[in-house]
Amino acid sequence: MFKRAVLATLLVGAFVGGVATVPATASVTMFTLHDHPDGVINPPMYGLRLDDLLASGEWTFSFDFVNGSGSAAMTLVYDDGAGTVHIYGRAYGGQDTGGGWAASSRGWVDIDFWYHANVTQRDNCPGAAGNDVYVTDDSPLNSGTVHLDGWGGNQTFVFTDKADATGCSFIFDNDWDSKGNATVANDPSIWSGNGWLQPGTSGSRDWIFIGRMNTLPTAPVSWGSVKALYR
Fold first, then answer.
1. What gap in Å lies between CA 34 and CA 122, rounded to an integer?
2. Which residue of 102, 115, 164, 189 pairs with 85 in a disulfide if CB–CB is 3.0 to 4.6 A?
3. Residue 98 CB: number of other CB atoms within 10 A?
């Protein structure tokens, strides 16, 4: 009876009057990421810039690229309970030639980056109260990889975050945009992401993307764990 009561509580808590509601313990939110419309060296549009990656010059990677070999797909998961941000997925790009990428230096990349330290909710870097996501300082714990899949020697590059002059190393904001794009900043369905990576170079190495929430925030409980109540 207790197991059935728990299941009933979960189901009632999830649906009130046939409308999905956010559980009180909500802590995990997933976003689909897209190229920012105002990258400094657009076109082509991109969500990640890693200058001087294999050779000197500008290198960019699109989160929206599609061709006969596949489609880019990038995700951000924010867990406010664990205090983490995970950016991962597949992108396409290479050495920027001004409108495209060099034929000999382009391809798919697999991206996997974690922010484990200094992840907070606030409205801005100085610390005003808010529910935007800010990483308030860099840390060796904030790191990840970019793997070149089938090109560039199949190399894997390791990066860590880098704080800018404000002290923040990553920003994911629902009512502000780093490029001053009013459409992005004023649309509650769009989150603006930007941040900086190291090791550094004479060029730029940074995130510049937008995100849209996939689902309502939910507690980290799988359907399998619910079904397990009956085992």
1. 23
2. 115
3. 9
Task: Name residue, tokens 């001004």.
Answer: 98
List Cβ neighbours of 187 (8 Å cut-off, separation of 6 or more).
none
Alpha carbon 120 to chain centroid distance?
15
Do 224 and 180 reside in the same domain of the chain? no
pLDDT (tens digit per residue) in 107-129: 999 999 999 999 999 999 999 99
- With beta carbons less than 8 A apart as the criterion, state whether 29 and 213 touch: yes
Identify the domain containing residue 3 by its residue range. Answer: 1-25+220-231
Domain match, 46 and 8 both: no
Distance CA 43, CA 195 (A): 20
Neighbouring C-alpha atoms within 13 Å toward the C-beta of 54: 20
Return the percentage of the chain with pLDDT > 70, whole number.
81
Number of domains in the chain: 2
3-state secondary structure of 173: strand
Place of tokens 């939110």: 29
